[in-house]
């Protein structure tokens, strides 16, 4: 009968759906940006598991959830996702500003809803949830800085894309395209007119 609890329970499923969405984006779009997001997210999950094993703090209610409670994996996942999305879209200068802000705000609101759900539903304490969020934010900042300040400038991304496996997989980097959505729309409309 708790409608807020039901909504928050649904929100707490966001990490599962986001991993599926990120994996789908990698396989369907074949973009380096998606690969970097998914790789960072998976490393963040490994960090969460390692921290839980190191801290070994119980959940507030042992019958809810498996494993330890510190830090909240859900909050850490969403902290990573929200900040990485915010940083990524901040650099998308060709995209419409309103679209960028909607994506950034949506990620932040979803992240906050998931964090609130963990406390409200009794899976984590507020401290465990705040710690998870903070670790996720720090991990996102570190991974984004590594990707943008080390991997890309070093030429690693370009070299990887030139390698046979990446060419076979049709991996690409559209980072230098100012507005990918507009470019793809224009291309599809031109192809449509050519067929007609």
Quick overview of this protein structure:
The chain has 196 residues and is mainly α. Helices cover 74% and strands 0% of the residues.
3D architecture notes:
The longest helix is centred in the last third of the chain and has 26 residues, at 126-151. This protein has helices at 3-11, 14-29, 32-55, 73-90, 97-120, 126-151, 156-162, 164-168, 180-195. The model has no long low-confidence stretch (mean pLDDT 83). The chain is 74% helix and 0% strand. Helix 4 (73-90) packs antiparallel against helix 5 and helix 4 (73-90) packs parallel to helix 6. By secondary structure, it is an all-alpha fold.
Structural class by sheet pairing and helices: mainly alpha
Oligomerization: single chain
Radius of gyration: 19 Å
| Average pLDDT reading | 83
Head-to-tail CA distance between termini = 56 Å
- The arrangement of helices and strands along the chain is HHHHHHHHH
Spans of at least 5 consecutive residues whose pLDDT stays below 50 are none
| Helix count, DSSP H or I runs of 4 or more residues | 9
Question: Could you tell me the number of beta strands?
Answer: 0
Query: What fraction of the residues are assigned to beta strands by DSSP?
Result: under 5%
Bin the helical content: over 70%
- Basic shape: globular
Biggest sheet statistics:
none
Q: Secondary-structure map with pairings?
A:
Layout: H1 3-11, H2 14-29, H3 32-55, H4 73-90, H5 97-120, H6 126-151, H7 156-162, H8 164-168, H9 180-195
Helix pairs in contact: 1-5, 2-3, 3-4, 3-6, 4-5, 4-6, 5-6
Output the keywords:
9 helices; mainly alpha; 74% helix; 196 residues
